[in-house]
Design a protein that fits this description.
Elements (H helix, E strand, L loop, with lengths): L2 H17 L14 E8 L5 E16 L2 E12 L6 H9 L2 H5 L2 H10 L8 H11 L1
Antiparallel strand pairs: 1-2, 2-3
Helix pairs in contact: 1-2
Amino acid sequence: MNKVEIKKAVGLVQRELTKYGLMTPGQGIDFPVSIMVVQMKNEVGRMVPNIVATWKETFQVDVNEYTETETDKLEELDRYFNAELFVNGIIQRAAWIQAKHEDRVAYLEENPGGHPALYSVWMEAQKTSA
């Protein structure tokens, strides 16, 4: 991808993340998902641009122990890169990313190995049963 194509792809990712409340460009740096373009070596050793999205995630580290840590999704910005596919992998878990650590722990305790994309369905069930 050339610089113009990269700028377009990053713009699309930013717009989609903003729609879901995961990013608020121009309003400081306190938002759930941050993205950046970095140069990294690819499988043949060439330095190439990659897009990196970072957010906080809750993981189970032991039987009853959970931790919140940063996680990221990265992909090389090459001719095979699809910005919509990249951002959809993030926005499918928008409710999870925006949730408090304690709420994510409650979800994982009730749904061991549960996928973050299903968190919003679980939250709706919690609201209707309350």
